[in-house]
Amino acid sequence: MAAPRGGPGVTRRAAAWGLLGLLGGSVLAADLLGRQLGLGALGARPEPGAPRVALTFDDGPSPFTPDLLDLLARHGTQATFFLTGERVRRDPHALQAMRDAGHQLESHGLTHRHALTLTPWQEARHVSWHPDPARPGRLYRPPWGGHSPFTRLLTRLAGARVALWSAESRDWLPQDGHTLALDLLRTVRAGDVILLHDGPDAGRAERTRALLVTLLPALQERGLRPVLLNDLPPGRIGLRDGWRRLHAMWRAPTSR
Length: 256
Ligand SMILES: [Zn+2]
Description:
Helix content: 40-55%
Number of strands: 10
Distance between the termini: 71 Å
Bound molecules: zinc ion
CATH class: Alpha Beta
Number of domains: 1
């Protein structure tokens, strides 16, 4: 009788590929459901009768925070900053300046790492860190928005909630800030939570600044007042808002 082809080596290889496929599938599912749809996290709360939006800045503080604070102050605007622990440690003065200006400070994790690269105990430490640990109703925005139901459970246990966004400024794209602002203004509506960034480099900081120079007066013209997330406040993302997020993320890049 002929020996079966392959043997244990082939079986092990098939199992490894199967495991890799399962892992890849899980990553894709987590990305789709967590980051892109955002189901179960906090996002917009559309309120036609309350013409407000929330500006949120991720990844700070940065060397460009003082310029950003100046610009916001010139427009009489307050915003919510999602900060990382490692950057706060490097620049505690920026944290105090944000506090003094009345901005809302929330957590973007200890370091800027995607949830899927963290062990459960590392993720527990990430979601427990907060720039203002004594304050109730704390928010946690996972880096890149990547999170799972497990992240939401850990965040709840830490006394906080996962908060995402409903409108992207796309200030990370290599476009000029004015064009990005016009693009955002085509879709922004009352109740939106707008994603922006504080730094991290000079090029991106300049782009965000140019974007704000167009965006802030335009919001005012439309009667959309930027407020803190505490004053919006954000609502829980359901299927409908999830599909809106997905559509906005995949819309054609601006060509103007
Ligand atoms: Zn980030």
